[in-house]
Fold these 4 entries.
Entry 1:
Amino acid sequence: MSQARTLNDVAKIANVSPSTVSRILNGTAVVSSDKRKSVEDAIASLGYRPNVMAQALAKGRSMIIGVVTQAISSPFYGETFVGIEQGLANSGYHPMFISGHWRADEEREAVDILTARRSDAIIILGGNLEDEYILKMAKSLPIVTVGRSVEGLERQSIYISQEDGAMLGMRHLLELGHRKIAHLAGPSTHRDSIERLTGYKAALAEFGIAYDPDLVLEGNFQERGGLLAAELLLSRRADFTAIFAANDQTAMGARLALFRRGIRVPEDMSLVGFDDLFAAGYTTPPLTTVRQPGEDMGAAAAAMVLNLLEGHLQKPTTLTPSLILRESTSRLRFS
Amino acid sequence: MSQARTLNDVAKIANVSPSTVSRILNGTAVVSSDKRKSVEDAIASLGYRPNVMAQALAKGRSMIIGVVTQAISSPFYGETFVGIEQGLANSGYHPMFISGHWRADEEREAVDILTARRSDAIIILGGNLEDEYILKMAKSLPIVTVGRSVEGLERQSIYISQEDGAMLGMRHLLELGHRKIAHLAGPSTHRDSIERLTGYKAALAEFGIAYDPDLVLEGNFQERGGLLAAELLLSRRADFTAIFAANDQTAMGARLALFRRGIRVPEDMSLVGFDDLFAAGYTTPPLTTVRQPGEDMGAAAAAMVLNLLEGHLQKPTTLTPSLILRESTSRLRFS
DNA sequence: CCAACTCTTGACAGCGCTTTCAACATCTGA
DNA sequence: TCAGATGTTGAAAGCGCTGTCAAGAGTTGG
């Protein structure tokens, strides 16, 4: 294991002081062109790369943006990761992802790890961290939340109205004539689930339809939960004509349940998802869904963090959901 | 922004020297229980957390495992990330993911970023980095490759035979009686594609079937590539009865092409994928596919890295692909 | 021609921690 | 009782870098 070169090695070879090398590296001051030349030569010949850890210590900035996420393999957050990555590109900052698995304790541990590494800022994606906890952290560190709001920190969050999104999906179904619409909800502990359920009810009310709690079942935002919930529902009643799933993964699970029973989509049953995962465009049939622009959210979060690090507080960023019309819904037919 | 406490603050409050605090933190030496107590109290009351950056500088170990990946949102590598995360849990090391997007130059840049941060080891997931480049790095740093082999570094890689995997999928199709089997390959620049194509041909040969290059089209390992390739193929000929896709995403794209033309799966066309993405169990119909245990691969890579860091070279780890039988294939019917 | 500047440069302290070394305090056993 | 062993602690140097400060060289203008 060969030793990495240090700034001192460079200084020695170039016959200048370490300070000068540092100045050239950081552009902190004017340096005569002959010294600059010899330093650059020395750097090239040694293949020298500054030790970011040491820079971090000296400058008091780690150049790390901590990202507390829920699952590193989540298809939805995956798109957000891409946005964050790109938004941070060429800023000198780098993201460090730690997963919290939707458990407040693990999320707190993630934050611990990140602060132990002296992250310069933290982006929190969803999760169940307590508001007070986040507020306290926000006092000592720039924080941006995505997909969840924190009272008193509205200006540091990227937010999409889940309720509006749900209404978009539901109105579409209602306008197609559906009246008995089931909802496969997310976990009831999850704010997004709650908001989407609220949107479901609001749309129903808008069309003067009574809310029927029997038509709502709880899943877990995963395919399997959607499958199970749909099977259960199907075994109990058969009078509904459309399903509004709490997210695309749930919709895909439901799709399988329908397939198993030979119920055709969209001829016999209309199906609407939420998120617009990349895969939603490739289900059979392609899934009509409410789009959340995951990548844009990530990019916006990155931009906001960068702003915050420069001391600028920007106005709250609100992105909007939109309906992506594909082929899993059809006008209600009277059979 | 309140200042973070330092080890010195703790020392002062506890009335001991910084060395003693450090010893307690690291368990480096025996410390009398009264001092230990007062130090622990001081740590608790200050909410002190050691600065990992400073520890890194002093110890010469960053406790970062760099992970060069191709896309942070990749569904296949996502599972590997999970394995890495878990394999590294409680080791004190943390992964740092940087994406290379299958471009050697970006991958080299990723490595640069990682070495500038003095990663203690690097895990390379797939990619197009030149063998020599990796070999050179391996001299100064523990390196583990996943899903790609490097000549001379076999003992530091987690490998799955793509050829064997392809043969598994193909034999299944052949045993079902299919004789005209199309292959939607991955990018020809990609080693996995090449190996899988080799397996495709080998299986054909095994069954005494002539290789027909017209039945092979190149995709890009993405849904869209699969869709396009399948559409093109379908527009050119209709005499094949099965498709062996280079990966699940390609298969899903092909599935959509078939759906568009009203070709039923598996009645009219059998379809086999590769990878066994989580989503493969929820396509319509659920996809028969060759499984690569992504999470196990990640866990194995993490374990290998940890071993390497302790100076142990283990024997090459070879995991094996397996066939996951679902519902997208059926026995050839004479129509 | 010299005071007053302006540039460029190096010495040095310090970021927060680890680790070696030596000092001091105790404890053994002969 | 004392030499030697053992245990616990602090001082200080150093990890690789930045940033302040001051010195020395070179300019300018009255």
Note: The longest strand of chain A covers residues 64-69.
Entry 2:
Amino acid sequence: MVSFAGFPPEGEGPIYLRIVRFIRAGVAAGTVVDGDEMPSRRVVSATLGVNPNTVQKAYKMLEEEGLMVSRSGAKSFAVVTPESVDAARARLQAEEIGRVVSALRRSGMEKSEAMALLSRLWDQDEQAEERGESE
Amino acid sequence: MVSFAGFPPEGEGPIYLRIVRFIRAGVAAGTVVDGDEMPSRRVVSATLGVNPNTVQKAYKMLEEEGLMVSRSGAKSFAVVTPESVDAARARLQAEEIGRVVSALRRSGMEKSEAMALLSRLWDQDEQAEERGESE
DNA sequence: TGAACTGTATTAGCCACATAATACGGTTAT
DNA sequence: ATAACCGTATTATGTGGCTAATACAGTTCA
């Protein structure tokens, strides 16, 4: 049974995305194995103190990513094939970031500059989300 | 006088950010010269069919970026210096990579992962160019 | 001075999004 | 069959960002 034991009580971003992130991390780390039973929406909602629909939103997203399967009325189970799942996700992101990489290189930016820029913007985006501000 | 002639009638994101982007691009491209008079909030609002305050929001941001100056009651002018041009270019690039940052964070990726991904894609893109396979 | 501009501040409406409340329908074990 | 679970759909509420409506205040020039 997949456990929400170590779920961070407080974190950044919407709850449903934190749930998605948590399960993704479990899959990536191997804590979640293939065929593992997922706790029900209601159980998770009680554990985290949120509405079942919030969990449903996260589970639905995870299902669309191929990380779990649900059948109406029955239990839900994790689907873990680390290579394919990770590769698929990385490929999607790689396509997007790849365009930017080319654009930045064409504009004459150095790799170190791009890395620094990404680092800075990442923290910036994090802080912006924390405070709900733009700048 | 800075012109909004070629302003794209439709585009992505909030109007005020599209205005900011438009002026940034003009500064970066050299279409806007130093001391160039900016059309008033009301004139631009009439041209684009939006509220003057929407233009004000854009102008305020541009001023904070050092791309223009405003004095209460008087006309506004563009500021085009080596520094402001660099700032405009940097902002345009930052916005591009910023979209990726948000996308990556929203998908639950960790910062270290994103950094590693950028690094890998950068080298990849570099090698592709060496082989003459660019775009 | 005063008219016609200019930039700026305050307030409210609207809409998208995250979350909750509630209800409905399917599966499973007894 | 039926109780106790399960997933799912619909609707409502609260919040934040974008835009608009309106009013206020400064500059310029005849």
Note: Chain B touches chain A through 29 residues (CB under 8 Å).
Entry 3:
Amino acid sequence: MATIKRVAEAAGVSTATVSRVLANGPHVRPEVRARVLAAVEALDYRPNLVARSLRSQRSSTIGLIVSDIRNPFFTAISRAVEDAAYEAGYTVLLCNTDENPEKEAIYLQLMRDANVAGVIFSPTRQTSVMLTTMKFNFPIVIIDRSVPDAPMDSVLLDNFEAAYQLTRHLIDQGYRRIAGIFGVMSTTGRERRRGFEEALRESDIPLIPELVCFVPARPEDGKEATMRLLAQTPRPEALLASNALLAEGALAAIRQSGLAIPDDIALASFDETPWTALVEPPLTLIAQPTHDIGATATDLLLKRLDDPKRSIRRVILKGSLMARGSTTPISDRPKPNARARTAPR
Amino acid sequence: MATIKRVAEAAGVSTATVSRVLANGPHVRPEVRARVLAAVEALDYRPNLVARSLRSQRSSTIGLIVSDIRNPFFTAISRAVEDAAYEAGYTVLLCNTDENPEKEAIYLQLMRDANVAGVIFSPTRQTSVMLTTMKFNFPIVIIDRSVPDAPMDSVLLDNFEAAYQLTRHLIDQGYRRIAGIFGVMSTTGRERRRGFEEALRESDIPLIPELVCFVPARPEDGKEATMRLLAQTPRPEALLASNALLAEGALAAIRQSGLAIPDDIALASFDETPWTALVEPPLTLIAQPTHDIGATATDLLLKRLDDPKRSIRRVILKGSLMARGSTTPISDRPKPNARARTAPR
DNA sequence: CTGAAAGCGCTAACAA
DNA sequence: TTGTTAGCGCTTTCAG
């Protein structure tokens, strides 16, 4: 394992000069530069990043703190972040918090200890309120969640609008008794609920509290909540799931109950995943530009690293409604007593 | 940002003593220990991991190098690795290689530069053969792939057996003309092909080269390969996909072709994912103990860190066959001209 | 344009 | 039991 010292010896220069050459620094005679480069080559020298980081108090690692990498939304984002980081010569430290504020705190600490260059973070509501009061020695970019007055860059979906649009779609299709399952730990769930309610209100559809659930964003919880919703009488005509994990649970519950989609109950969700187009019927949903979110977040972080005093940016991306088979218009459905009225095909 | 020096001053001891206390070292008077701990508390001191790593030449980061985090198999493994690492006080550096040997080399280099404690790695065939000749200053645990004579721990599925069992299942269900799509870059694909062929041979079913494809393990490629297979006459009766990404593509292709599963073509795959039980019909597959694989790999790595000269271990796990609707017996199928002979339900 | 020297914050001999 | 000291490998003033 060659060190800078050995390279310096081999090239007949000081370590300072080697360092300069490696940093592409100015004030080095081309001839000397060539000699150093040759020595680097010959010894297969690679700078020790740990030493570099200790000395320069900077590093080429960025932290990515998400609640669960198994959530397809975060999986896609991680991939995008990793790709963008790689391009820029950075590596990614990945952490899962399970939406657990304690783990969030621990990992944030760890980021400090590990001297990361910066962090991309998707905090729980609980942590977001702390975030403004805490001091970090690295920049943070918030993704997916909103942290109102935080002095940090963020990139997120227009959740209110997206949920409004999705709910509106359900209403337009003729559904009235619409249930919603939202993630309880995130601001995202709240915002989507607001969009959901706004659409209902606008159409003078009464809000039925029993039809709105806030649960942890996990398939089990989504399933359980759906089971409870399905047990109500009258049964909801449609169900909106606030993310892919909840939708997964909802679908499992509907299947287990032997109900047909959309005839017995329509289903709409957030997040395009590998399976949403493969199930029968394919799911109507709001697709988030996950790759874009990850790439943008990384870009914001790197830009801020470059210029710590640039103005704070908040990037809001739009989701796109993918209307598919799980929410076909109510009137098109061959109802037992309406079949005669419905044109064939 | 308190340093060990300040803590030492505050506690009225030397930095060495602080270090000892922090390392839970022996030979420290309880009274002094208490004083140090108090100072640590008071100053909210946290050791700088970078400095620690530089000095001790060890670190608490483990590298995880997979081909694509979006592959549900690797997603699940990453999660398990991260959990186990967290438990043990380690963090995870995540890297995607896209089965690209160049990227594999770069990341392996990077691991060296970053001074990681160890690496969990799923190499391409191409890299695996190099692996034995390369020297690393950290232990590597191989997952998913096999590296025959490598002096390193590994944990993988009994791929031959699993593929044999899955193919055997198809044969038992009455299928004869069986196609297979395998990943081209991994040893895993090869081994599964061998199990596949062995099962066919054993049943005296002729091997038809046109029915075996090796493609990159991506949905697009799986779809394309399936399209080609479906275009053949006679069409295959069943299709075996060697992993979840290929199965995703295969399913998309079958859907797009307007074919029914299993009536027109049966489908069997590897890897339990969120969607395999949600599609209609649910997919028959070999479920891999992903969490177990990740946890075991991490365990092997930590154990080796603890004792570098312990004997090399190769952990082989068994997959479990989940027989479901996508491969129901051929004779049970209500065929147009057989319906009369088939007992209802 | 180049080198000497001073650390970054920590650990680990070695002394005391 | 504790302190002194010498670095880990690198970057970065400051001189020359």
Note: The radius of gyration of chain B is 26 Å.
Entry 4:
Amino acid sequence: MKNVTLPPTEERLAQIFRALGNPLRLQMVRYMAEHPQCITGDLVLASDLAQSTVSEHLKVLREAGVVAGVVEGPARSYCLNVDTLRWLREQVAFLTQDLEACCVVEPVVSERSIK
Amino acid sequence: MKNVTLPPTEERLAQIFRALGNPLRLQMVRYMAEHPQCITGDLVLASDLAQSTVSEHLKVLREAGVVAGVVEGPARSYCLNVDTLRWLREQVAFLTQDLEACCVVEPVVSERSIK
DNA sequence: CTGCTTTATCGTATTATATCGATAATCGGA
DNA sequence: TCCGATTATCGATATAATACGATAAAGCAG
């Protein structure tokens, strides 16, 4: 947890979480899941946002590796990056495994863990 | 995707993603997974940050429902909220299921989805 | 080459986040 | 009740994110 050198995996996972941590981008991801190979204009029409704003959100998703775009004539067709999403699912599964409820359901008396 | 009324579930999921979208908070979550019922001071010692900063990060995690704290004498013992993490895992699994690689591995020619 | 369509980028204003030091609140023990 | 230990909150500041309109870039049709 020290700031010394954060594992690149950790930074990358956080980047993906951050990309998905915006309701609009999350909706974009869902839209793309339902509409494979949709183009930017589709997402603009499906939202209330300016074209430039949608483009910026796509940039965030692209840089996080959540989506990928290919040139499609004058437009760009966007898709989810399945590899990234699979990796995310594994990481989340790993992060949430082997956890036992401690103080949520039934508060448990504990001793200080350090000094 | 319209901004009209975002489902509360979507906003909540985004909130959890946002909470986990910071490397330090992600590390805190891992620390808590390894050290059940640790107190705030443990997290402060394990980080390079000021106590107030750690406290703010805990607040973000708390408000997202990722962690829960119980009073433990003058200190506060923190734990992961297992219910939230399980819910997150389900949501991520749902989000990433039934996806087929489209333009990432092998670009596919597509037609416009709208108009 | 010239337009037309589509998308990305730039400049900018507003809002949110991160971090710290200082201070307040809370609890248990003397 | 007062003190020490622990944590939360406040105020300030710096950085990052969000959103828009305007403009640039890129590709295709003619």
Note: Strands of chain B lie at 38-39, 67-72, 75-80.
